[in-house]
Amino acid sequence: MPWLTNAELSLVLAILPAVVWAVFWRTTTTSTFPGPYPIPLIGNILPAERVEKVLSALGEKYGPIYSLRFFRTPVLVLNSASVARDLLELRSSKYANRPLPKIVEMSSFNRGIVLEHDPARLRLGRKVIHAIGQSRGIAEYRPRIQHYIATYLKRMHDTPREFMKHARSLVASTTLEMSHGYEIQGEDDPLLSDARTLVENFSHASDAGGYMVNWIPFLSILPEWLPGMQFKTRAYEWGRQYNMVSQKAYDWVKREMVKGTARPSMVAKALDETTRDAIPEDVIMYSAVQVYTGGADTTSSTICGFILMMVRHPDVGRKAQAEIDRVIGRDRLPTYADRDKLPYTNAVLSEVLRVIPPISATLREPSEDDVYDGRYIAKETMIIENIWGMLRDRDVYADPDKFDPERWVDFDSKHVHHPLNIVFGFGRRSCPGRVFAEEMAFTVVALILSLYDITHDCDTSGSPIIPAMAQTTGSIMFPLPFTCKITPRDTRASEHVEKFYTMYYQAPGSAV
Questions:
Q1: What is the DSSP string of 195-216?
Q2: For 394-414, how does the pLDDT look when each residue is reduced to its tens digit (9 = 90+)?
Q3: Which of 92, 160, 173, 495 is the most exposed place for a label (fewest CB within 10 A)?
Q4: Residue 431 annotated as part of some ligand binding site
């Protein structure tokens, strides 16, 4: 989306004649959907931050589906889950593609299922991930998942102030074990460090409109010494790091398989089946690394978002704790198998995902011309799924800014407007790791509620410090750092943590 730094603005003005020629070299289709009038040549201008909120506000004026234009690119914004379902699920064969921003292509992030354009490679990549992402696959890894949860609870008990780091480590450790059979060796593990950098780079590169080259692709061929060309160096470094980490982790699994010491993992399983199913090695390699980039920070963001909302709404936490005490008791810890017996706890997680989702928006494009509601949609129109806006739809949710888990207690979990059916996307591009993400998030939420009290901090004068509902920008949103108090509910909680840790912890023993 066209938001400009001073350097980029100077560059655009300098090459404006070429831009005019490029824009009018072919005819631009005028959308028949309502929307704000675009500025000639440039199109519609949006702010660089909190774009999802602006798109949502525009939806209140122009409706659940409306048009924008970014330079010569026609855009449709979907602020309604019902409309998204009509287009992206019921017509999934037409809307399976994601647009490929130029900065993503330059960074090599188009390699992997998240932005893969080749339908055959996409099917193979999703097949590889489904081997570990569905219920049957998760069952194979559950003992190892318990190991990492035990480590997480022990860290929360010992250093609760570092709850954000612990959440990231928990999900990173679990996803790397499931994808590559790799066991992280502490916070300074080199592969963990590389993977975290990769997630940060991927989030910046896949931000819907963060770089002008996405809208004026020929900028990519201009020399790097021109003002505003720093993105070329950045993209090169991102691509180098992405390819290095992907290859490094993949080669490690192959070495472990040769030695006969490979743990069960997505890569090992796919390599065993390669001769039969003819899955290209690069599909396996990049699909595996995107298990981490696509899932690690989203799930850890959900866990930290839950803690944030408990600080802001202690009454909700106490009510969920009362449900767990009544149903589970204090003699054991809740598990994922208890989910159906804990409707309010489940509702808390659903409402966390609604008010502070880890994904703000995703992109699609039709592979052929289409008509919806009597209006024309041109092939390769950019479709913005405004996930944040769908979850704040005032036509669906009463008082959408209010945190109210009660709205989900008796709500049909299969309904299109349930948060769990929105945050994981729609149709053929929905998250293939949804089953794992739901299990991990619910299990951790239930355990935290059972074991800990979460309260606000106080400043030097004794006044409560209530953290704001602020998140990072980019395609993956994470709560901004905040402080709170996390303390064991009683001595029994501390005993449970020690017992759980003793039962499931094993010393790490892997190395790249």
A1: HHHHHHHHHHHTSTT--GGGTS
A2: 999 999 999 999 999 999 889
A3: 495
A4: yes
